[in-house]
Design the sequence.
């Protein structure tokens, strides 16, 4: 199954969120770990989950986005 | 001079991280590849295209 | 300045990033669409020999102001009608782009109109014969003296922009920034420039190929040398951490803001890093735009194409590079003309733009390689894949428009489907008058977005110092050398 999340960096933390999930962590490694735990809790064993995490480029200042079309896009795969 | 500049910017550009061996390899590899590419391409361009000007 | 806006934590609908993502929502794609539209309109005009592009307003050197503007096809309409028609058509087309990019349309239209008027005023003023005509043409304009400032209209446009960017009240500046999009306007102009190169290539096929190949070679050498040197210096001597050093090295050595953002993404750096570095890049690119063309004209006049290519290797935003290329083209040709040498227009500019375009093309691959290196060596994150689609997403789409325009014109010219005269009838207004007007808009906008006060802001001055030392101490001399190695002895073909 696929999970879609938005990613932002605010107040020195990475935040990944959608309507149901919101994870906050100091580093991306920590964020991934917390996300893995959260997904394990929600969906249990025997699941293969693909997480598509798009950085919310709208959080960049307007003047800068003309120079480059996207920030980044992460794909994470978890096998429980 | 460099020490002074280093002191000025040190706090702004993240906590210092130790220089890693892999960084040496990547930097050196790229510079060597760059110099080789520069010499080879320069020779090719100079004896072909630029010879006409 | 460098603060991130507070994110709206209202997730949009689920969407997966696909190859066509951004096709109607980014300025890069809209430069491709609009630029290609104008070029295709020119080609249709050439095929049908109807004045479809004849309405584009063209600015002339003048002694009496009523002769300062004209329609590209003079018989089609009066000068004022051409100016109004150009305003209406450019406004509608760019507003369509603004609408799809979800900008506030009302704000855009008002700000755009002011920028359009400022550009028009600068163009007319700068084209005054006493200001801009070379001494060889004084007799033609009935002059006995003059300033001989070729390219004065661009300088006026930049000065007007800088006054707004640095001295205007904050509210007005915030408002005008809604339409001050130098990268968008220059990319539209660059697509039109592709048509110019294609047209010229039909007359000088060998020369265009040489420029293309030499530009590509110079780029490869620059990528492999600039980046590691800048990275090494910032890490070892300036104490940057890896993310800062990588973003800084990409920004200063590859394609400026774009590279800095792409590298920050590859290294998963917080947005604040590319934002600070980008602010510095934009300011220094403007300084280079002001300083390099006159210096190169004075001290490197015997190597005009090398000088043009060196701009592409040293000025880090597309807008400032192309703008500097245009200025250098004007300055060099004016100096040559004063010596009785007539050079074909646009080749020095094309050398500057081609080198930069080659640099832009590879940023996706470079960022992908960095992302792989980062995930593999520095920040291992099990389960994370580096999506290959990012190479395509980061690929500059306006470049497709540039090459499409170039090859289309070359194909039509070489195949004999249309003669050069037929092609010029339709395409010249696009690659000439329209392109130059969008260049002028870029000059105004570069001025507006360049706020020198940013250098004073807490912290930025410190990174700026490192930027200045490496840019002027390493990147520029090396860029001049690489440009010379690959373009040595080339001069523009004689004007026909």
Sequence:
């Amino acid at each position: 199954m696929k999970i879609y999340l938005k990613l932002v960096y605010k107040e020195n933390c990475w935040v990944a969120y959608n309507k149901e999930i919101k994870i906050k962590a100091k580093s991306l490694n920590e964020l991934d770990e917390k996300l893995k735990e959260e997904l394990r809790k929600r969906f249990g064993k025997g699941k293969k989950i693909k997480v598509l995490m798009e950085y919310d480029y709208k959080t960049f200042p307007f003047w800068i986005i003309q120079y480059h079309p996207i920030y980044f896009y992460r794909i994470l795969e978890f096998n429980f | 001079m460099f020490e002074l500049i280093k002191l000025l910017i040190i706090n702004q550009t993240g906590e210092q991280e130790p220089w890693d061996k892999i960084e040496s390899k990547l930097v050196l590899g790229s510079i060597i590849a760059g110099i080789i590419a520069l010499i080879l391409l320069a020779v090719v361009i100079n004896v072909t295209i630029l010879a006409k000007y | 300045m460098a603060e991130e806006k507070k994110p709206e934590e209202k997730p949009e609908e689920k969407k997966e990033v696909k190859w066509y993502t951004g096709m109607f929502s980014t300025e890069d794609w809209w430069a491709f669409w609009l630029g290609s539209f104008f070029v295709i309109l020119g080609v249709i005009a050439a095929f049908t020999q109807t004045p479809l592009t004849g309405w584009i307003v063209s600015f002339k050197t003048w002694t009496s102001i009523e002769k300062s503007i004209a329609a590209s096809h003079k018989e089609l309409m009066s000068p004022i009608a051409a100016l109004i028609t150009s305003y209406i058509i450019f406004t509608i087309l760019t507003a369509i782009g603004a609408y799809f990019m979800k900008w506030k349309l009302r704000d855009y239209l008002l700000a755009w109109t002011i920028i359009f008027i400022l550009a028009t005023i600068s163009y007319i003023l700068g084209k005054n014969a006493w200001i801009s005509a070379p001494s060889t043409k004084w007799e033609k304009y009935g002059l006995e003296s003059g300033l001989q400032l070729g390219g004065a209209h661009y300088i006026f446009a930049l000065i007007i922009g800088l006054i707004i960017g640095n001295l205007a009240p904050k509210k007005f500046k915030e408002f005008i920034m809604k339409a001050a999009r130098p990268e968008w306007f220059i990319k539209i102009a660059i697509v039109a420039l592709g048509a110019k190169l294609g047209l010229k290539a039909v007359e000088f096929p060998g020369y265009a190929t040489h420029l293309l190949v030499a530009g590509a070679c110079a780029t490869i050498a620059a990528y492999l040398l600039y980046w590691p040197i800048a990275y090494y210096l910032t890490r070892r001597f300036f104490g940057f951490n890896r993310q800062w050093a990588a973003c800084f090295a990409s920004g200063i050595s590859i394609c400026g803001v774009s590279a800095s953002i792409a590298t920050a993404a590859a290294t998963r750096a917080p947005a604040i890093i590319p934002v600070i570095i980008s602010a510095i890049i934009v300011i220094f690119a403007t300084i280079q735009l002001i300083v390099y063309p006159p210096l190169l004209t004075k001290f490197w006049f015997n190597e005009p194409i090398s000088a043009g290519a060196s701009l592409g290797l040293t000025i880090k935003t597309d807008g400032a590079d192309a703008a500097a290329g245009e200025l250098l083209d004007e300055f060099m040709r004016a100096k040559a003309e004063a010596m009785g040498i007539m050079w074909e227009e646009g080749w020095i500019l094309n050398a500057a733009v081609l080198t930069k375009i080659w640099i832009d093309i590879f940023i996706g691959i470079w960022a992908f390689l960095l992302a792989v290196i980062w995930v593999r060596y520095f920040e291992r994150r099990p389960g994370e894949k580096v999506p290959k689609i990012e190479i395509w997403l980061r690929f500059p789409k306006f470049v497709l428009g540039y090459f499409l325009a170039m090859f289309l014109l070359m194909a039509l010219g070489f195949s004999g489907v249309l003669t050069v005269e037929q092609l010029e009838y339709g395409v010249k207004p696009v690659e000439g008058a329209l392109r130059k007007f969008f260049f002028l808009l870029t000059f105004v906008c570069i001025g507006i977005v360049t706020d020198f006060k940013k250098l004073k802001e807490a912290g930025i001055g410190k990174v700026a110092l490192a930027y200045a030392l490496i840019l002027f101490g390493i990147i520029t001399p090396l860029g001049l050398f690489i440009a010379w190695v690959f373009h040595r002895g080339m001069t523009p073909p004689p004007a026909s």
User: Anything to note?
Assistant: Chain A has a mean pLDDT of 90. The first strand of chain A starts at residue 2 and ends at 10.
